[in-house]
Here is the input.
Amino acid sequence: MTDSTTAAAAGTITIGGDLTVNRLGFGAMRITGDGIWGEPKDPDEAKRVLRRAVELGVNFIDTADSYGPEVSERLIGEALHPYPDDLVIATKGGLTRGGPGDWRADGRPQHLREAIEGSLSRLKLDRIDLYQFHRPDRRVPLEDSIGTLVELRDEGKIRHIGVSNFSVPQLETARAITEVVSVQNRHNLGDRSSDDVLTFCEQNGLAFLPWAPLQNASGAVERVATSLGVTVNQVALAWLLAQSPWMLPIPGTGSVAHLEENVAAASLRLGDEQLAQLNG
Here is the structure.
């Protein structure tokens, strides 16, 4: 790892057959206020983070209309538009907010239509390259929610459809309706409950976007980090990148310094012994 490392050092992944991006992205959830609610304490720093991410070769940014709500998408539009030709902005819809830390599923077709119109406006886009259904809503048939995204894709407002917080059976149901190109589930060193979903993605050529990638619960992480002279976050990201070529980590932060630390992990390669310690 060097100070000049960019996200390109992680290699690339192609999503949906036509979106090729560097395999270390940026999650724009934490450029909002506490509890992912309201404006950030320092909006200028939030915009600096976004611009610095692009300077460091990050060309995949993940957000959602519920982050803020609306704040993350708006800041991305203000900081980065007009966008570089190779920048893919993925967003999500299907959650509403009642306050800090309060997340409520809403998969109604009417809500999803309203959500995507808002996202297009805030992001200053005519079409969203990757639109992800944020979470299944048990009150609404999955066929209705996914079917609405298919309609929106047919109308030219979505390029590719992804899903988030899905089980394998739910993913199979969605794929019976339409092509799904990505899955975004919680996955990190301390939570591997989506291993079966990752395996499904590998078998079917779907990108896997792990959210909460930097949360870990293993003392082995600190030992490996100390032995390599790197940070625990860098080890956590290197571990994710080593898990699968279909893995696309999206670590997020509201700090330029933390962003640079995360991107430096793109060039960190863990050896078999280190991976064995982390996987143990």
Summary: The mean pLDDT is 96.
